[in-house]
TrEMBL record:
NCBIfam families: PRK09257.1. Residues 20-41 are annotated as: Disordered. In eukaryotes there are cytoplasmic, mitochondrial and chloroplastic isozymes. It comes from Dorcoceras hygrometricum. Residues 76-442 form the Aminotransferase class I/classII large domain. One of its GO terms (molecular function) is pyridoxal phosphate binding. Gene3D superfamilies: Aspartate Aminotransferase, domain 1, Type I PLP-dependent aspartate aminotransferase-like (Major domain). Keywords: Aminotransferase, Pyridoxal phosphate, Transferase. Its EC number is 2.6.1.1. This is Aspartate aminotransferase. CDD domains: AAT_like.
Length: 450
């Protein structure tokens, strides 16, 4: 007895007919052109709609790691990446972070629902207190709006785009040199990027006179990017007295300070000390922006945890500013991820975990400081020409060695040491075992190339 094919069988038969080229009726000339569309796989690369796209250069910082990974040498050393490493050269996950994650995993009430556009409420409140101080008048007066963003980079980008839309001045002054991503982030956000003098190659310290002159000549109302502490790439920070002079100058010209705080607690090992520059500007009652990152100080690099705080003139303005920040964030990434911010919130709201974090944080900062002293001692022991005292005068993750691009290339080729071409090295990438190798390379570079 003949059995009727099921609906599923009929669909499969129809599909097979469509897939069989012999069963396809000839197309008219207009339809045939679809077969040689530039987007079809058979068209070949030369007919691609993207055939004009050129190979982009590697990111100057991330590209260092790409080159390092390709090097088979057993003595290779990566000092380019801005990430903490242990004495054994391994990435570190803080014990307190693991504890916080365990608490989160065991909490069966937690769900994976979307966060609000502005992020996790506890995280935002605690982040503002961490950078501005728990007793900050601005927080007490509800003049601060804080939104969770995608680490420091995302916080800068959201802040930059907000300013491009709502601030009367579209020029931002950034230090020369600065983190390589700053000009791109602010330029693409819609701001015009200019520089002010910051680093003096002759002294390998701060060009304070140049800084003051350039900010004094900036147009009234211009935005000024300031590194809160541990300036990247130079490791050179203003003194407290110099910060006060900078504050007075910025306020007298009605400039708008935008702080990038990527290393709070990571520079000196003290969270409050590393936030003093920001708090100085907030204490005078003026307005400012602060981008925070938890990549370095909690080791949450890949979790992309950050915050943007805008200190406003009053609570009413702060509320309206937040409403507009939502309109920046919504079409950009809609809302931020929940896991990393939950880790930070869990640690900051628990006094025991917070205390444990500060101990681990100080240990990281102290190890970097120790690497500075060991490198200086090693160069002195070799009689390396020049004054290398800037290695211990500079602060934070990076040292601006003063080596030129030719010397850097020599060290990469002959000693398999990788760093950015401007001579910046990550002190966190060093260990007691690798300091002699770096000292040998520096000594050879400056004696052979000069």
């Amino acid at each position: 007895m003949h059995k009727e094919p099921s609906p599923a069988d009929r669909r499969l038969t129809t599909l097979a007919r469509h897939l069989d080229s012999s069963s396809v009726e000839p197309m008219d000339s207009a339809n045939q052109s679809i077969g040689v569309s530039p987007t079809s796989a058979s068209a070949g690369a030369r007919n691609s709609v993207f055939h004009h796209v050129v190979q982009a250069p590697e990111d100057p910082i991330l590209g260092v790691t790409v080159a390092y990974n390709k090097d088979p040498s057993p003595v290779k050393l990566n000092l380019g990446v801005g990430a903490y490493r242990t004495e054994e050269g391994k990435p570190l996950v803080l014990n307190v972070v693991r504890k916080a994650e365990q608490l989160l995993v065991k909490d069966s009430s937690r769900v994976k629902e979307y966060l609000p556009i502005v992020g996790l409420a506890d995280f935002n409140k605690l982040s503002a207190k961490l950078i501005l101080g728990a007793d900050s008048p601005a927080i007490r007066e509800n003049r601060v709006t804080t939104v969770q963003c995608l680490s420091g980079t995302g916080s800068l980008r959201v802040g930059g785009e907000f300013l491009a839309r709502h601030y009367h001045q579209h020029t931002i002054y950034i230090p020369a040199p600065t983190w390589g991503n700053h000009p791109k982030v602010f330029g693409l956000a819609g701001l015009s990027v200019k520089t002010y003098r910051y680093y003096d190659p002759a002294t390998r310290g701060l060009d304070f006179q140049g800084l003051v002159e350039d900010l004094r000549s900036a147009p009234s109302g211009a935005i000024v990017l300031l590194h809160a502490c541990a300036h990247n790439p130079t490791g050179v920070d203003p003194t407290s007295q110099q910060w006060e002079q900078i504050r007075q100058l910025i306020r007298s010209k009605a400039l708008l300070p935008f702080f990038d705080s990527a290393y709070q607690g990571f520079a000196t090992g003290n969270l409050d000390s590393d936030a003093q520059s920001v708090r100085m500007f907030v204490a005078d009652g003026g307005e400012c922006l602060v981008a925070q990152s938890y990549a370095k100080n909690m080791g949450l690099y890949g979790e992309r945890v950050g915050a943007l705080s805008i200190v406003c003139g009053n609570a009413d303005v702060a509320g309206r500013v937040e409403s507009q920040l939502k309109l920046v964030i919504r079409p950009m990434y809609s809302n931020p991820p929940i896991h990393g911010a939950s880790i930070v919130g869990t640690i900051l709201k628990d006094s025991s975990l917070s205390q444990e974090w500060t101990i681990e944080l100080k240990a990281m900062a102290d190890r970097i400081i120790s690497m500075r002293h060991q490198l200086l001692d090693a160069l002195h022991a070799r009689g390396t020409p020049g004054d290398w005292s800037h290695i211990i005068k500079q602060i934070g993750m990076f040292t601006f060695t003063g080596l030129n691009s030719e010397q850097v290339a020599f060290m990469t080729k002959e000693y398999h040491i990788y760093m950015t071409s401007d001579g910046r090295i990550s002190m966190a990438g060093l260990s007691t075992k690798t300091v002699p190798h770096l000292a040998d390379a520096i000594h050879a570079a400056v004696t052979k190339i000069g």
